[in-house]
Design goal:
Helix content is about 75%, strand content about 0%. The protein is mainly alpha-helical. The chain has a single domain, classed as Phosphatidylinositol 3-kinase, Chain A, CATH 1.10.555. About 20% of the residues are buried.
């Protein structure tokens, strides 16, 4: 895919997320996510992923939003694996996409750690947990 195609695809994805009537991650789950991300040093990657997924289970997060989040996190994981070629490392992706997944003003609710660095950790833990569970099925 050429540079122009990559840019057009990125803009389309970001536009889609901006145009959603509500954020992919509802504000009501922020406290649970914040707690899990702050306690992650005491937990294994798999355990952190399970806790994050538990906070995101329906009805807290509508099923369509959960599917969107799952697909987007897998896509961002693939993009970050090519960071040597596209300069989109996990930190940069978290910086770009966290404002699109969380409501405006969420920085004050989750703080800078949970939005920028936290989305990187969140993505890694969720993808690890989902991939592990898919391998088991």
């Amino acid at each position: 895919m050429g540079q122009y195609d990559t840019q057009a695809l990125s803009e389309a994805l970001m536009g889609f997320l901006q145009d959603l009537p509500s954020p992919v991650i509802p504000k009501s789950v922020y406290p649970s996510l914040k707690t899990t991300l702050q306690e992650e040093e005491e937990m294994s990657v798999g355990e952190t992923g399970r806790c994050l997924l538990k906070a995101l289970e329906p009805p807290a997060v509508p099923l369509p939003s959960l599917f969107t989040l799952h697909y987007l996190l897998r896509h961002l994981d693939r993009v970050s694996q090519s960071s040597a070629h596209n300069d989109l490392d996990p930190h940069t992706l978290a910086f770009l996409f966290s404002p699109l997944l969380l409501t405006a003003g969420s920085v004050s609710h989750l703080n800078k750690y949970c939005t920028y660095v936290g989305l990187k950790t969140f993505r890694q833990n969720i993808c690890f947990y989902l991939n592990s569970n898919l391998d088991e099925s």
